[in-house]
Amino acid sequence: MKLETTIQGLCASLKSARAEQKIIGFVPTMGNLHQGHLNLVREARKKCDVVVVSIFVNPIQFGPNEDYDSYPRTLEQDSQLLETVGCDYIFAPSVEQMYGNKPRLTNISVSNITADLCGLQRPGHFDGVAVVVTKLFNIVRPDYAFFGEKDYQQLAVIRQFVRDLNMPIDVVGVPIARAEDGLALSSRNGYLSEENRQIAPMIYKTLKNAEQELLQAKPLDEVLESIKVALTGAGFIVDYVEARSLELQKVETFNQDVVLFVAAKIGATRLIDNLQVKYIS
Ligand code: AMP
């Protein structure tokens, strides 16, 4: 495994792989890796000849009051983990390497599906993601790119601009990796106090409970309300609880497969999760 910190270095390293027609797989991350990230790398390893993982905390996807400065940066530990799952190249560029020192005048903005859910509380977030992922795609030029369903809306945004802009990349979604108690793994879980870590799995429990209620034909609006009530009762500040189609369109009733979405704060930590519920007619 090789660490590259410059665009030039990475491109030079990938040149021979490309010349030999090797299939290149790419896993973009912000580091502080956990099993969720490693699952993406394992998927990439299965499908591709060469696996590139980027570690870059992207400043432009963080809002002014978000955790950009305090976001955990653990390159040493991440390298050790990546070695165990067969990563070939880590690409860990500096902010200057990625953004240079001249103003950026180009934006990539996906409309409609970014208007709500996380887009509402985090204005500009998905533009920041779209810009950095496009830059990374242009640098790595992968055949396949792997993203987690944990960030379902992000995955939809990426699929959308890849399709809209004819990027020749296969985007692969990977299921959510969870702790034993159901909490979706996240680098931000490390911010949780011991007490809040005990409460956090409530999100997944309420989602699983909601799934049962939907399958027992309880009306969708009542199910969403009961998630909100349960989480608020447990001490969360609920940002949103929503149901969408798999393509993120609004749904009023449970008459197709849906995704249930939750974003909620416990203490100062904002957690997101989602659950796909299959409709059985
Ligand atoms: P991040 O480092 O948080 O930007 O995440 C990098 C990639 O890992 C994204 O595609 C995430 O969706 C994915 N990811 C993060 N947590 C999980 C998880 N618990 N299960 C599956 N994928 C995840």
From TrEMBL:
Per UniProt, subcellular location reads as: Cytoplasm
- Residues involved in (R)-pantoate binding: 61, 154
Summarize the protein's role: Catalyzes the condensation of pantoate with beta-alanine in an ATP-dependent reaction via a pantoyl-adenylate intermediate.
Return the protein name: Pantothenate synthetase
What catalytic reaction does the record list? Answer: (R)-pantoate + beta-alanine + ATP = (R)-pantothenate + AMP + diphosphate + H(+)
UniProt keywords, alphabetically: ATP-binding, Cytoplasm, Ligase, Nucleotide-binding, Pantothenate biosynthesis
> What GO cellular component is one of the record's annotations?
cytosol
Family matches, as InterPro entries: Cyt_trans-like (IPR004821), Pantoate_ligase (IPR003721), Pantoate_ligase_C (IPR042176), Rossmann-like_a/b/a_fold (IPR014729)
The residues that the entry says bind beta-alanine are: 61
Q: What does the sequence similarity comment in the record state about its family? A: Belongs to the pantothenate synthetase family.
Q: Which domain of life is it from?
A: Bacteria
The signal peptide here is none
Q: How does it assemble?
A: Homodimer.
- Does the record carry Nucleotide-binding as a key word? yes
Main EC class the enzyme belongs to:
ligase
